[in-house]
Amino acid sequence: KSHRSRVALISFVTGFSFLTIHSFITFYAGRPLNTLRTRRPRGSRGSDDL
Question: How confident is the chain (50 residues) per 10-residue block, as mean pLDDT?
C-alpha cells in the first residue's frame, strides 16, 4: 500500500513540476525567442544563416 501511494505521489509531483516548468518556459523563454526571431530576418546577416 505504501509503495503504491509513493508511486502515485511521485507521478503526481513529476506531472505537476513538468506542467509548471512548461508554462514557465513558454511564458519566460517565449518572449526572448519571439524577439530574436523577428529581429534575425531584419538584420544584414539573415541571408548568411539561410
Answer: 89 95 81 57 53
CB within 8 Å of 46: residues ≥ 6 apart: 40
Q: Report if pTM > 0.70.
A: no
Q: For the chain, what is the domain count?
A: 1
In a domain, 22, yes or no: yes
Q: Where in the sequence is the domain holding 16, given as residue range(s)?
A: 1-36
* Phi-psi group of 43: left, alpha or beta (phi > 0 → left; psi -120 to 50 → alpha; rest → beta): beta
Q: Is residue 7 part of a domain?
A: yes
